[in-house]
Amino acid sequence: MAHAPEAHAAEAHAHAEEAFIWKYVFSKNHRVIGIQYYVTAMVMALVAGLLAMLIRLQLAWPQRDWGVLAKLFPMGYDVGGGFGVMRPEFYAMLFTMHGTIMVFFVLSTAPVSGFGNILIPLQAGARDMAFPFLNGLSYWTFFVGCVVILSSFFIGAGAAAGGWTAYPPLSALKGAVPGSETGQTFWIIGMVFFIASFTMGGLNFVTTIINLRTKGLTPLRMPMTLWAMFLVAVLGLLAFPALVAACLMLIFDRHFGTSFFLPTGLVLNNVPLLGPDGKTFLHQGGSPLLWQHLFWFLGHPEVYILMLPALGFTSDILVTFARKPLFGYKSMVGALWAIAGLSFIVWGHHMFVSGMNPYLGMAFAVGTILIAVPSAVKVFNWLATLRGARIRFNTPMLWAVGVVSLFISGGLSGVWLAQSAPDIQLHDTMFVAAHFHLIMAGAALFGVFGATSYWFPKMFGRMMNDTLGKAHFWFTFVTYYGTFFPMHYIGIAGHLRRIYDPYQYEFLKPLQPINQLITISALILGSSQILFFVNFFWSAFAGKKATENPWQANGLEWTTASPPPHGNWPGPIPEVHRWPYEYANPDFPKDPVMQHEPLTAAEMEVKAAEGPSRHEH
Amino acid sequence: MGRLQGLLFALATVALVVLATFYFTRPWLPPLKSDRIAIDHAIWLSLVVTGAVFILTNLLLAYFSWRYQDDGRTRAAYWHHNPRLEWSWTLVTALIMCTFLFKALNLWAAVNAEPPADAMLIEVTGQQFAWNVRYPGPDGMLGRTDHLLASQENPIGLDKSDPHAADDVLLLNQLYLPQDRAVRVQVRSMDVIHSFFLPNFRVKQDALPGMTVQIWFTPKETGDFEIACAEHCGLGHYRMRGQVHVVPVAQFDKALADAAVQ
Prior knowledge:
The structure holds 2 protein chains of 2 kinds. Chain A is mostly helical. Helices cover 61% and strands 1% of the residues of chain A.
């Protein structure tokens, strides 16, 4: 078990007097970088959330004249004559960029890059990440990606409008949709920066967790968050390269006349797309299905990249506030491994009706249905953890039970969609939107909120306001369900996704009142996030000072000051002697027993009797 | 005060269970007009099984949140491992999932089976933003198409020099189907990806440029229904709407001829 040399602490201290720009802007400190990621993700969430509000307004009242919005977004609303109705191409841009920004720049960034950086060295007992310079470089690469993505709104015909999945030919042919002009190129460049950044981060995560764990922190003594971060980094390293390759191929198809994704015979607006000779097609021999395979080869592991950290946070938080050990720790670790492994053989369930060979659909249905098993194991273990607990409902705990609730609600609809035949009816409907907003987006978002209120002391050395936090939770919890749960019903009724005006269809007309209800709920959901922003920034600067271990938790991160100094522990790094969830042990007068607490004489005897292999508890 | 949050969470969870159960048991599916009733059965079975798990797990979550709150005096149970319990729920879940899998794979195989030999051939070609519907006519053969020939007047590039092309019947956004006779639909696209969605028939198939995908089903009831595009295909995606008319077999040829004249 490698651990950082103690000399590093002194060296780190000498660095503490750095200039502001090196300390807080181009920092190499894991905690500062984590906070940079986190705050950038908050800004991106604000943008993507605003886009969602506009989407919802459109779905509730599609042909309404929005005077104010027409002034705010002239390119999106002003259809001439002072009539402020949304344009269909603007709507396509809204849902494309909402999805892209939320999935990659918010919900991959905040939990993984944000909390990963803040927590990995603290939970692993390391002075910093393995490669601090690479870590800083990774953040600034990500930052460039954000700038590229945001600037795409203001150039040419606007941002990409081919959906967050960017299926060619729509995303490859410039004439197919206005956003496929410069917007799509910016989208691809932004994504490549994001992936480069995520890869640097992933290398750092894996190396740190494998090589820099403190003495005694064996794999089966790692807290669930650390396990989740490790697996997420591995998923990212294995899955994202496929999307980079796809993005580069798409760039070539768009700008250099190749035909990776473009078949022979494309006709746009009744005009064949001819090559320079004027007699044969410009594009020949490609397949749009190839993009879908490459995209979802990343895309499905990606949804677990969003979710696994939230599952880790939830386990850690649940235990601390239940005052009871995590039930089935080994099966929880096993379930994470199973989910991570299976996530690579399920991507085709996004493609059941894509036109790929139906035999392939069968293979992907198998993997997809099997993934329900480790997911169910996690839920049962969480429930068993709560049984016989002594729960304290502080803000972090509310978010944690919220994740459990969303994981159940969103997970079960996955069983419907995993069966390829029912998916014929449900594919590309709002049922799918309900499913992934509850499980992937919701669980990740609630996980991040929980982690923020729980580890805030380690971020800023202060506590978040608990009353404001609870108010934020209740508004969010109720309106989150109010927004996304009814989407199941309209989805079963056939309500399509990504549709500018559903009421063009007779069979969707009766669903308008439900859409209006959803929109009202979504607007309250959106505005209640102000509570969080206020609480976050007010508490960061003026919150109550936090003690070392305000929640009486037992992990390593709670053995150092809040916030931790440069180098994380002023003295030597604590050694780990036991598993991370030793709560309510009747053999000890104090509760919990900290992870670095040396074994008692009685425990040593038991261990000696059992032999050297059983050392994890 | 401390116990209020747990109580609230329990009540909210129970409210969720009650509302979800009430609304999920209402008939949301568009009325079924084809022979694909097995898909509806699979959806209902999914609802019943996942609904039971939803109710059970949520009620446990609600009960535990309310019941096991910190009293400030006693410690939680030191209980974190029970191999028999853990293996039981893993295996039971796996068993239920394997049952689903078995049924799902059989149903998928049935849906994707070869169409009956007498199935009526229809071609549907998506383009931004319309559905081109084509029937082979009396000769039973679709004429050759060549996308190089595509133009405003000839959107699918029908090769008029092909003898089979002369009697082809072309319609725009109108799909006539015979009642109680299997139809095999060849789904294609001229430009981007569309998705041929018939909500009342439990039919959805992406229309891909460069590929022809065949699906088949049997319309069971007469009437007028809608075709929707289910795959985002550009700014006019929302208005890529067509109509389905199911008519008795005896009237089919006349209905098609009348529609073609218009």
